[in-house]
Specification:
The structure is a homodimer. Chain A is an alpha/beta fold. The first copy, chain A, has 6 helices and 6 strands; from the N terminus they run βααααβαββββα. The first copy, chain A, folds into 2 domains: about 120 residues, Rossmann fold (3-Layer(aba) Sandwich), CATH 3.40.50; about 40 residues, no CATH class. In chain A, about 30% of the residues lie in helices and about 15% in strands. β3 of chain A pairs antiparallel with β3 of chain B.
């Protein structure tokens, strides 16, 4: 059975909507889709506010109730029958997110077990047959087949096979 | 730079001494070295007490202040100069251990960073050049060089290269 490592943030979970709304609450400005094109949220805010985004992401509860990406549950339930599925999140930078991420997975992907979770600092030790991720830095040492999950921040990157959304993942992998 | 995945429990951290003393506190019996030979702690207790050991390990704080194995700090600090070191713990079965394990690593291995931590359910997705672990089940899908860290529970297992202690690891790997 081939194995597949699936990322969390901006692949199955949406932290951007919440971070934008918290930033609006605190600073009265909202990011347009345009400002986020080709950039991470930390890169889109003024340099002096970079630490604010970091603070948001390390706030207990931030990751607890994020929206799930459309079709992710249905498609990953199907993938789980044909692949060894792992959910791999480079979450260690935000230790307060770890328990929230586990609870979120238990709530939203109840067909996966704790054996399939991996919370790490750096994905360079993860080797599976496929990796679905929105950040190409996670592919740097990856020997399997990388699949770049499309988002506004990676729209300009070339040279990778892409997955456009979970419907597309189903068409590619099922 | 070659990479090396190093286990936590019964490799760099000792959870057995504490589990034994808690069991003594609760049931008035202490395990002899002999009873633990060739067995995990869960296997050494009467079957009806298996759940008790699980409860101990999932108690917040249990992993927070475990003793460090002799020479582990000094030798891993040296390994960290010559290898990409990762600390990999299949800790996901005990979600309450996760924060304790991170704090313990920060306290006892301050020369490692969060980028080097990996807390997972199953080590089958971890591929490094070497893996030091006391449980052969973690080598099942491992393609690098496994090094079995000797402990009373694995004393009867044959067919693996062993590391007897951290002094021996230094001799083998440095």
């Amino acid at each position: 059975m081939p194995s597949i490592a699936i990322d969390m943030d901006e692949t199955i979970a949406d932290p951007i909507t919440k971070a934008r709304s918290w930033y609006y609450r605190d600073y009265g400005t909202i990011f347009s889709e345009d400002q986020l094109r080709g950039k991470s949220l930390s890169e889109a805010v003024p340099p002096e506010h970079k630490g604010i985004i970091h603070q948001y992401l390390n706030t207990p509860g931030f990751f607890r109730d994020l929206p799930v990406y459309p079709d992710a549950q249905r498609v990953i339930a199907e993938l789980n029958k044909k692949y060894k599925v792992y959910i791999v999140s480079a979450a260690m930078e935000f230790p307060n997110s770890l328990m929230d991420k586990i609870s979120w997975l238990q709530d939203n992907f109840p067909f996966l077990t704790w054996r399939q979770y991996c919370l790490c600092g750096d994905k360079s030790l993860v080797q599976t047959d496929y990796m679905i991720d929105d950040l190409i830095r996670n592919f740097q040492f990856f020997k399997g087949k990388p699949l770049l999950f499309t988002g506004p921040h990676n729209i300009h990157i070339e040279g990778y096979d892409r997955i456009l959304n979970w419907e597309d993942a189903a068409a590619r992998l099922l």
